[in-house]
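Can't paste images in this forum, so I'm doing it all in text. The chain is below; anyone willing to post the predicted structure tokens underneath?
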Amino acid sequence: QLQLVESGGGLVQPGGSLRLSCAASGSLNSYAIGWFRQAPGKEREGVSCVSSSGGSTNYADSVKGRFTISRDNAKNTVYLQMNSLKPEDTAIYYCAARVRYCSGYVSQYTYWGQGTQVTVSS
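Text version of the structure:
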């Protein structure tokens, strides 16, 4: 059973930056890690994903050029660097794991963290 714990959320002004971390209880070498977010009253949506090898990454159109996903398998941790934050980025951010390859579908991820709140407001 892989446990994931997100951290790094908080309150930030528009245009600001945050770095989210997703720390795993065990090795992430075999897992693709996705970041998802859910705003109040909305469905959970995919933000970004990195494959198990780190060789493939993808981003939602809404965050391309502003967010960067990376992984450090030695630390069993995946990061989401978020720059130029906008109020519409406000949501609970979750990381999730599935074997090897990325997917944009929530249902295809096996393990989930508890989420971290990101609020972008002046």
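The longest strand covers residues 91-99. DSSP finds no helices and eleven strands in the chain.
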